[in-house]
Each structure stands twice: as C-alpha cells, then as structure tokens.
Amino acid sequence: MRLFLVLTMLLSSLGCSKPPIEPCVAEYHHLRKLAQRKQNKGVRQRFVTACVAAWDVERHRCIMAASNVTQALACRPGKIHPG
Fold first, then answer.
1. Are 75 and 66 in contact (CB under 8 A)?
2. Half-sphere exposure of 11 toward its Cβ, with a 13 Å CA cutoff?
C-alpha cells in the first residue's frame, strides 16, 4: 500500500498525467470474475500497483473485451518495457 501511495504522489509531483488507477481496478475485477475467484486485498493491491507501473492501453482493451480466461491470457502487451 505504501509503494502505491508513494508512486501516485511521485507521478503527480512530476507533473505526469493521472495514474490509471481506476482502469486497473476495473481490469482486476474483470479478471477475477473470469477466473471465478474471490477478492483478495493483497493480490488486488499488487495487481493494481503492477498495472499502473506497466500501463498499456492496448493490453487493457484486449483484457476487458475477453469473455473467458483463455482470451484474457492471449492478450499481449502493445508496448515492450525495457528490462
């Protein structure tokens, strides 16, 4: 949780655009429903933090359009992050 708050504050202080927290939360809930799993706050927080750090609009659209787990797993990043 602290990392998430620090990341948000850092991005806002640098004048960057607002981090995509809401779409990442929606993506988490969509994937959770597809996998038929109960919500886990720890997993949710880790997912949202990683999603914000590696935000990719193309991948997000693909995942949100998926109607099953196989389709969601087939989604590939639209941009490649270094490292």
1. yes
2. 14
Which pLDDT tens digit goes with each residue over 29-56?
A: 999 999 999 999 999 999 999 999 999 9
CA atoms within 13 A on the CB side of 15: 0
**How many CB atoms within 10 Å of residue 26?**
14
- Give me the long-range contacts of 40-45 (CB less than 8 A, separation at least 24): 45/1, 45/4
Greatest extent of the chain over all pairs of C-alpha atoms, in Å: 39
pTM: 0.71
Say if residues 65 and 34 touch (Cβ distance below 8 Å): no
- Alpha carbons 22 and 72: distance in angstroms, whole number: 19
Q: Which two tokens stand for residue 14?
A: 């640098």
